[in-house]
Amino acid sequence: MTAKILESFGGKLAEQWVATLLTPAFVFWLGGFAAILQRWGWPSLMAQFTPIPEPLQIALLVGLFCLIVVSAFVVQRFDRATLRFLEGYWHPWLHPLRQFRIRYYRDRQANLTQQSQALRAIEAQKTTILQTLKTAIATHGAQRLTADQRAEYLRLNDQLLTPTQQATLIRLGQELRAMPTTTADLMPTRLGNLLRTAERKPLEKYGLDAIICWSRLWMLLPDAVKKDLQEARDDLNTAARIWLWSLLFCAWTLMGDWRSISSGLWITWPLILGLLSAGFAYGWTLEAASTYGDLIEAAFDLHRHLLYQALRWNIPPDPVVEQRVGRELTQYLRRRS
Fold first, then answer.
1. Which residue in 22, 100, 28, 74 sits closest to 278, CA to CA?
2. What is the mean pLDDT of residues 168-194?
3. Please, are residues 242 and 279 in contact by the beta-carbon 8 Å criterion?
4. Do the beta carbons of residue 55 and residue 62 sit within 8 Å?
5. Which pLDDT belongs to residue 140?
6. Residue 126, helix vs strand vs coil
7. What does the alpha-carbon distance between residue 219 and residue 221 come to, in Å, rounded to a whole number?
8. 131 compared with 21, residue with greater pLDDT
9. 31, 252 Cβ separation under 8 angstroms
10. Helix locations, 141-162, DSSP H
11. Which residue from 82, 106, 284, 329 has the least number of CB within 10 angstroms?
12. What percentage of the chain has pLDDT greater than the value 70?
């Protein structure tokens, strides 16, 4: 019986070790060990480790494992703070940089809107020409059109915009959809604009403020929807956590031997790897935030009626009326009035 218990415990402990090895915390401390090894060398470390009694060596290894686990737990507590920083909720002393970035996105939004409107105007103009040609064909027949008019009709009937113009219009639309519709809601980072857009869409479409209504709606959602949303949120938190670990990894640069100029790149390799990992993690947060925002919007699109039913409010039958009723419901949840 004891052997089976020990075998089971050993198996679970091994699984825990494997799970720990695959965490960013282990990669962080492994990088630190590599930096220390580079600074002092393997023989020097072994010369200090070998004289230690074996029980103390085992305790030291267990302590290192506990350090990895505790550090992973501590860094996980900063998921929300890291995510808010990446969104652009910066300390007041960074206010000038925040305003500069918001002005950048405001100018870019205006530029994208102008380009999109220009392409839409070209599309509308060609649509008018096409409708005129169709009317002429219906009235007089295609034979009365000149060769140039027939060629123009065939070209416009097949495609109003050129492939390049269509691709540009799609790209502009995607980038504009990733920004809030009002300039007052702009954030200083792409991630902040993505999540702010997701927060504002239910308010613009249904008059429901996602910040106020989301906690209530969450309790009413089906389990399958909750599971998808939770997985998307966990993906976003994981990306933000890896971004933070990547920045912390850059600190191992301080372990380099700065007296040796010939070491060159070997001194800065933690900085290079950390910055590359941070860039990858930030791109991951953008993709995860886009998915999470889409799921939040879909939850309001498909399940907002559950909120009305649970609060005993009449479901508005008309989209225009729903805007007003949704704002009244938001006001009720905010102030209970």
1. 28
2. 90
3. no
4. no
5. 62
6. helix
7. 6
8. 131
9. yes
10. 147-158
11. 106
12. 78
pLDDT at 106: 92
Rounded to whole angstroms, what are the CA distances from 129 to 158, 164, 315?
13, 20, 44
pTM here is 0.80
Phi first, then psi: give them for residue 171, nearest 5 degrees: -65, -40
Contact assessment for residue 177 and residue 154, using Cβ atoms and an 8 Å cutoff: no
Taking the C-alpha atoms of residue 44 and residue 295, their distance in angstroms, rounded to an integer, is 54
212-252, pLDDT tens digit by residue?
999 999 999 999 999 999 999 989 999 999 999 999 999 88
State both tokens at 131.
Answer: 């409708």
Q: How far apart are CA 79 and CA 244, in angstroms?
A: 9
Which phi and psi angles does 333 have, rounded to 5°?
Answer: -70, -30
Give dist(CA 250, CA 275) in Å, integer.
Answer: 7
* Helix 223-249 vs helix 265-310: crossing angle, to nearest 10: 160
Place of tokens 């590359």: 276
| Contact (CB, 8 A) for 281 and 240 | yes
Structure tokens at 293: 């925002």
Average pLDDT in the 175-204 region?
91
What's the pLDDT band for 45 if we cut at 50, 70, 90? low
Cα–Cα distances (Å) from 96 to 102, 164, 218, 232, in that order, read 10, 38, 37, 33
What's the token pair of residue 165? 């113009």
Query: What is the rounded CA–CA span in Å between residue 215 and residue 221?
Result: 10
Flag whether pLDDT at 42 surpasses 90. no
Alpha carbon distance 114, 137 (integer Å): 35
